[in-house]
Amino acid sequence: MAMTLDERKRKVLRAIIDDYIGTAEPVGSRTIVRRYELGVSPATIRNEMADLEMLGYLEQPHTSAGRIPSAKGYRFYVDCLMDPQSLSAHEEALIRQWYDTRVKEVNQVFQESAKLLSRITHHVSLVLTPQISQCTFKYLQFLPFDERKVLGVMVTDTGLVENKLIEIPAGISMVDLQHIAEVINNQLTGLRFDQIRGELLAELHRQVIKHPLLFQTSLDLLRRTSQVQRGEKVFLGGTTQLFSQPEFKDPEKVKAILAMLEEDQLLYDILTPADTEEVHVTIGTENKFSGIQQCSMVTATYAIHGKTIGTIAVLGPTRMEYAKMISVMQFMTRQLTEVLKKFGL
Amino acid sequence: MAMTLDERKRKVLRAIIDDYIGTAEPVGSRTIVRRYELGVSPATIRNEMADLEMLGYLEQPHTSAGRIPSAKGYRFYVDCLMDPQSLSAHEEALIRQWYDTRVKEVNQVFQESAKLLSRITHHVSLVLTPQISQCTFKYLQFLPFDERKVLGVMVTDTGLVENKLIEIPAGISMVDLQHIAEVINNQLTGLRFDQIRGELLAELHRQVIKHPLLFQTSLDLLRRTSQVQRGEKVFLGGTTQLFSQPEFKDPEKVKAILAMLEEDQLLYDILTPADTEEVHVTIGTENKFSGIQQCSMVTATYAIHGKTIGTIAVLGPTRMEYAKMISVMQFMTRQLTEVLKKFGL
DNA sequence: TGTTAGCACTCACCTCGAGAGAGTGCTAAA
DNA sequence: TTTAGCACTCTCTCGAGGTGAGTGCTAACA
């Protein structure tokens, strides 16, 4: 991979990709010399193109068509070639205004972010809500509900709340419950949810052995937070944008992608923040999941209390305005983090 | 509308619709006599068909094609003609088993119901989660969070919970907060959320005038429950089923429908239970929203504590197995209500 | 009077071939 | 090393002609 292209090859590759991103049409040698000033003839370009194809940066749909970039080509473009392209003042204003006028409370943030993101990028957007497993346990409290049930409320340091109705086993009083909560709190407060595991729970169990039934259900409350099940949710936006892309004019392709977007578990896996990079680009076949190997994805993470805790992403054809997307994602995550702060998180 | 069709016209209409539902092809006179035993010749059928078209029950895509049912035709079919068709034992088992194995806690119920419903019907499914505005206020409680914030938790009679982080205004103690909660609870306990309106809030305001700032934010907690904003959510399932229907082979149509399904506000409007009917069928142009006037919709309501509180729906082409859909919806709502009961609601 | 056979006619759909256009690879000259 | 010239390839579009399903009408029939 230390293989570097000479200056002219770079220019040609860049021109081809820029053009293809704009037009979605295979680009030929003539087009290049007409639209980009390289000071050479089409024949020369053709030679360069043949070389670039040999090297794997370009592909040819059929013998007598122009070239289109390969995944490798895009990768090189993203890493080395493209000009950064920042947001227009208008777009920045739109983002700020959107949050100001549309988001009146914290629960709307994520859905509205998804809408906004697809509106700005003209691609499908995905927003993963905060992952509770990255938060720390603050306390558990039982609130009265009726004679036979009690409401367990669990609070995290980041202000997220989980709750569950729990059947009260016979012979247990409200005072007992307070006691149980106290024991649990003493043991768990300050731990991250993904640290609250079997051993710790067993230890707890020994201490609350008197009331195993109740304990069981209140542990459910804890346990479900360490599984990817609830609380976390993926909001989608702009799925209809797929129809506007010429590469998806075949309904079967759209169908395949939409089918994937319905598989929540898959989306969690894709979006769960793995690396610490701020913005990450995955191109075509670099994607693990076959359904979207014709797509590229730009993901970025946002934070609460300085903790990386959620992800936003854009999904579109490999022919994507990468430079623009990256700027948008940077700006959006910063705004999002700020808005969450405003709501006390 | 008191106009009744004679026996043979009914038989013909029924045969045409049954056939069209199965094949999605305009049906001609020959087909009818071949497949359905009416004991007359194609010519006779043609005459009947011409009559039925005059009366508005049938339409002709173009001069030399067979007939297809009109919205009016389907309506008559649903109201008077079709045979009830109940679920197969296999389908009933699938539904029960789905809930047993997949739904481990109450939060999964709705999403899984959407998946299950689209799986069984092969259409797009919609599940509206319980409407908090139909519940009654039980109590509000403040839980400590940190020195500057407090966690307001609001509980309904049906066991639904809303919560919000609230900034503590200077000079207010936890005791003050308890007092405020008490005042609010005295005034509101037992009221339905859609009854908690301006007047009542003003009255409350007079009583808690001491701490207007805090009051404001804790009222937000109440207020947001009377708006269609949060808590309620629409889960979708099987959007890709649209692609399988021949009537939607034009991507533009799919796009239009998907665009509509992204408009949450619209979905609330459509799904919010209006009438008391158990199952309701809306056919083609009977739909208020232009995007789905090529579709039919079968909706049904489910209940918590005997209160009609949410809706499930199926959306598909007008050419739909109405009889089957109605049975499915009846069975599903009954199961759903039961599952919710199992989880203490 | 209701039903049926016969027949001319309509219209969507499929296939095929011709022509245009864009682009390539190769060769030979500059 | 670059460029001009040229034959070749492949896709796309368009129109013509043929096919088949289905209709409406008319006239004969029970």
List keywords for this structure.
homodimer; 345 residues; alpha+beta; Arc Repressor Mutant, subunit A; Beta-Lactamase; Enolase-like, domain 1; 3 domains; three-stranded antiparallel beta sheet; DNA-binding
Structure description:
Two copies of one chain form a homodimer. Chain A has 345 residues and is of the alpha+beta class. The first copy, chain A, has three domains: 7-81, Arc Repressor Mutant, subunit A (Orthogonal Bundle), CATH 1.10.10.10; 89-131 and 233-342, 2-Layer Sandwich (Beta-Lactamase), CATH 3.30.450.40; 133-226, Enolase-like, N-terminal domain (Enolase-like, domain 1, 2-Layer Sandwich), CATH 3.30.390.10. Helix content of chain A is 46%, strand content 18%. The first copy, chain A, contains 13 helices and ten strands. In chain A, the strands form three sheets. In chain A, strands 7-3-10-9-8 form a five-stranded antiparallel sheet. In chain A, strands 4-5-6 form a three-stranded antiparallel sheet. In chain A, a hairpin with an 8-residue loop joins strand 1 and strand 2. The longest helix of chain A has 21 residues, at 322-342. The first copy, chain A, is elongated and about 90 Å long. The relative contact order of chain A is 0.13. The model of chain A is unreliable at 225-229 (pLDDT under 50). Chain B binds a DNA duplex (30 and 30 nucleotides) through helix 3.
